[in-house]
Amino acid sequence: MTEDLISKNQLKYLNASTRKLIWWKYQKHTLAMIGLISIAGMYFTAIFCEFLAPYNKDTRHLEAIFAPITGIHFFDDQGRLSRPFVRQSILELDMEKHRAVVVEIPGTHFPIKLFVQGDPYLFWGVWEWNRHLFGVEQPGTLFLFGADRMGRDVFSRCLYGTRISLSIGMIGVFLSLLLGVTLGGISGYFGGWPDGVIQRIIEVIRCFPSIPLWMGLSAAMPPHWPAMKVYFAITLILSLVGWTDLARMVRGKLMSLREEEFVLAAKFLGASDARIIFKHLLPSFTSHIIVSVTLAIPGMILAETALSFLGIGLRPPITSLGVLLKEAQNVTTVALYPWLLIPVFFVILIVLSFNFVGDGLRDAVDPYSR
Question: What is this structure's pTM?
C-alpha cells in the first residue's frame, strides 16, 4: 500500500507541468502566500474604491476639519448591546490646547448600515450610482481614519490613493519591461556597437542621482497640464529611469544563451533574429523576468510616493498615497493630528507584500532552493 502511494505521488510530480511545480513550491512559502492574498485584496479595493469608500475623495465636511478617528459604539445609553453606531459630533475650540476638537453629542444615535445611500459617483467612470458598502445617514459622519484639513475622509482618500499608486506601479513596470527586454535583448544578442551604445546610455542614466533627475524631468512639465496628463507623464518618467536593471539582466542571460545548440539550430533553419530572441531565448528565462518585474513594482510605487511627497510629482486633484502624505510634511500638524500619517502604513503594506511575493517566486523558480 505504501509503495503504491509513493508511486502515485511520484507520478503526480513527474506528470506535472512546470507551472504546477512552481505553484506547489510557491504555496509552501507562507509569507509569499500572505503577500499574494494582500496584493489581491489591495487591487480589489483599488478597482471598487468608489463603492467601498463611505465618501467621495473630495467630499468636504466643514464641521469636521481635522476630526479625529470616529468612535464606534456597541452599547446604547442604557448599556444594552446594540448594532454599531456613531454619535453626531460638533467642532469646538479648546482654549487650553489652542486647537479645534470634535465633541460627541450625547443621546444621538446613527447606526452604521450596509449598502447605504451616499455621495453620487461614476462607477468605473461609466455608471452613475450612489450606493456605498457602509456608512451612516446624515447628519452623522463616519471617519475611520479621521479627517484632513479640509474635512475630507482620510479612509476614503486612502482607498482612492491606493488605486493611483498601484496603477502607476503596474503601468510603469510594464513600460520598463518593454524597454528593458527590447534594448537588453538587442544588446545581449547582437553585441558589438549596439551593445556599446546601449550600455553607455544605461551608464549615463544610472550615474545621475535619482531625486535630482526626477526633479529635472518633472520641472520640464508645463504647470498648466491637466491632472491626467501629469499622471501619465510621471509614469513615463519613472519608466524611463527604471528600465536599466532589467535590461542588464536580460543582456547577461542572452549573452550566456546565444551560443547554445537550440539557438544555433534555429539559425540553421532560417529563423530571423527577432524570432530567435522573442520566441526562443526570452521564454527560456521568463520566470526570472517575472521575479524581477515583481520586485520592481514596489520601487516604482516608492518613487511616485517620494516625488509626490516632495511636491514635484502628482498634484491635486489626483489623489495618490504620496499626495496624501504631503499633508503630513509639517511636524506640528503630525504632532497634533497623527492620523494623517496613516497612508504610510498603506505604502509599507504594499511594498512588503510585493517583496514577499517576489521572494516566493524567486525561491519557487530556483531549482536548487529548498
Answer: 0.84
